[in-house]
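Q: Could you fold this chain for me?
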Amino acid sequence: MRVLSAILLLMVFVGLAIFLTFTSSWGAIWTSQVQETPVALAEEPSPTPTPDWSGKFAVDILQPTVLRAAPAPAAEIVAVLRRGDRVALSGCAADLLWCQTEEGAWLLSYMVGDVPGDLPVLNASGLTVRDVRDAPTPTPEPSPTPTSEPTPQVSLLQLLPTPTPTPAVVETVALDAANLRAGPGTEFERVGSVRSGETLRLIGQLADGSWYQLENGAWIAAFLVEPPATELPVITIENGE
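A: Sure. Below is the predicted structure, expressed as structure tokens.
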């Protein structure tokens, strides 16, 4: 009986030793796997910084606007701003037609919101800043006394009819892809199309400025092109044309 008890006690100790051995081994293996597997943390995207307009002459863009490398309609296009964009100005030309951004590009002043009254005035030729309040008032020169001229002799050439002058052409740029129409309205037949950024040659406009006529006779809506820098002659459309 004692021998049997001793054998049972020995089997209990052996079983306990085997249990502890396997438990410790698998525990060590599991612990090493957990420690060696890093936990990947999701990186949050950096928020887009909001421009700081404090201390700047910032204005709102009212309609699609072309930025040019110089204050001239034929100057190179460097960028295009959309309606609702905001831009900081460094000054405007003395005639207030062109304004310069802080990056050095130029845009037409009537394409933006209210221009700040204290905005510096730029001399477009030398691009130097001067204060309009300190600008000297030009002294008017006295008108010369008219002198009597001899009566001109009428020649045969002066009696011939004067040829009709060729209308002046003003170049501008298409702000977006657009259709060309046979007349000033969407009810007229489509006669062609233009691409965004394409140079157009204008010769006239409607009295309300809503449509422009191209050199080839086609018409395009005014909001689809950059407003011309010079005034175009008014074209009258008769009823039934």
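A (continued): Residues 2-36 form the longest helix (35 residues).
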